[in-house]
Write a structure and sequence with these properties.
The chain is of the alpha/beta class and 417 residues long. The radius of gyration is 21 Å and the shape is globular. It is 35% helix and 15% strand.
Length: 417
């Protein structure tokens, strides 16, 4: 297939069935593989890309993830919709690391993205590419953060958006969608129920469904997590990556990113061990991994307050499981009380107010250390997928005292001890 190199330098060549391996044209609106309904993945022509990429990476960090334009699917800069996503810091957290038994742990702080989570990456690229292909209306199911990101980027593009969310998502997520002008529909059910209704909505209205891995380009935005991580560490990947997994787009994207970086000569063939983290109340990937299955059965009666990983079934399950196994990694389910505990500890020990999904990842690091799957001296990266401010407060926080504005200072000092 011919490759059309546009002003961005994008080397997008074709789309490929993630399971079937069949090739399809890239410059048409696409959803899943017509062969089997599984995800389509963007493929690039790497000949000559290194020179274009070197020029692009010389741009200031304020360009965010679009510094990686030659390995992204948008061909023309006029179609790029950006709110400043990407280029998030990779932070040492020594006090938290000591508590985890992993002093060298690093945290990729995705909560500083424009919409407060890593979902901004995927939506920036997916909306930009869809607009380039003349899409003007979007629909998607969301557990919270992705819906807010779609609403924000659709608004920036001047496009319509409809978001279907489980009725119990936090009010902050609902407010974000509404404040950005999207239509919000609450569903008495789980995220896969929302997904089914989203598909029906798309069929009836012609809106483009940007559900996780049901179109090819959200994963392209998420793969920039892997690009940036490699650059942050001077092209030497860490020993272990710990990632809270719902639909798994970020984990799949990073694994794809590492292959692409190797293809253009920026990293070696060495890979980190990928660890997929879920909650004990919803762990279809963990169960499938330990059962030796390539596909994950639906998890019935899914339950966890970490809404981003309350995903009973993932359309890209085999891609997640392939990456974990190929890397020599593992899959871990953590109990709900550990999520509560590590969300509190993360804040108290210097990692900030993180989301419950991130707290699950920290709890998993502790588990991995206790059972010897991770060595104390290994370099471990945890992805902090979003800020905690969008969620209800974690259980167990103290109740602050309320005092009169004219309280005696001695009394005030007593309360502060």
């Amino acid at each position: 297939m011919n490759v059309s190199i546009g002003p961005t330098g994008s080397a997008l060549a074709y789309l490929e069935g993630g399971l079937s391996g069949r090739r399809y044209q890239a410059d048409e609106v696409a959803t899943t593989d017509p062969e089997d309904g599984r995800p389509l993945l963007a493929r690039y022509d790497f000949a000559g890309v290194r020179e274009a990429l070197d020029r692009s990476l010389s741009l200031p960090r304020r360009w965010g993830l679009w510094r990686w334009a030659p390995l992204l699917p948008v061909r023309d800069w006029q179609h790029v919709i950006s709110l400043g996503e990407g280029s998030t810091p990779l932070l040492p957290v020594p006090r938290l690391g000591a508590a985890l038994g992993c002093p060298g742990v690093l945290v990729k702080a995705e909560g500083i993205n424009p919409t407060g989570s890593f979902k901004a990456r995927g939506m920036a690229v997916a909306v930009s590419r869809a607009v380039e292909l003349n899409v003007r209306a979007f629909v998607m199911p969301s557990a919270g953060n992705a819906g807010g990101a779609l609403a924000a980027y659709a608004a920036a593009a001047g496009a319509d958006a409809t978001v279907l969310m489980p009725a119990d998502v936090p009010p902050a997520n609902q407010a974000e969608v509404l404040a950005c002008g999207a239509q919000l529909i609450l569903v008495d059910g789980l995220i896969d129920d929302c997904g089914r209704l989203s598909s029906l909505f798309a069929e009836r209205t012609g809106a483009f469904d940007v559900s996780t891995l049901k179109e090819p380009y959200r994963v392209e935005g998420k793969k920039t997590l892997g690009f940036e991580l490699a650059e942050d560490l001077e092209w030497e990947l860490p020993d272990v990556i710990v990632y809270p997994t719902g639909g798994g787009t970020g984990l799949v994207g990073m694994w794809k990113a590492f292959a692409e970086l190797e293809a253009v000569g920026l990293i070696s063939e060495r890979r980190p061990r990928m660890v997929s983290v879920q909650a004990e109340g919803c762990a279809p990937i963990v169960r499938a991994f330990h059962a030796g299955q390539r596909f994950a059965d639906r998890w019935e009666q899914a339950s966890t307050r970490a809404g981003g990983i309350r995903v009973p079934r993932a359309v890209g399950d085999f891609l997640i499981l392939d990456a974990v196994r190929d890397s020599g990694g593992t899959a871990v389910a953590v109990p709900e009380d550990a999520i509560d505990e590590w969300q509190r500890l993360a804040g108290q020990l210097g990692a900030g107010f993180v989301s419950p999904e991130t707290a699950a990842a920290f709890a998993a690091v502790r588990q991995l250390r206790e059972r010897g799957d991770v060595e104390r001296t290994e370099r471990v990266v945890v992805f902090d997928t979003g800020i905690g401010h969008k969620y209800p407060s974690p259980p167990g926080l103290p109740t602050p005292p309320v005092v009169d504005a004219h309280v005696d200072v001695d009394r005030l000092l007593t309360l502060g001890r």
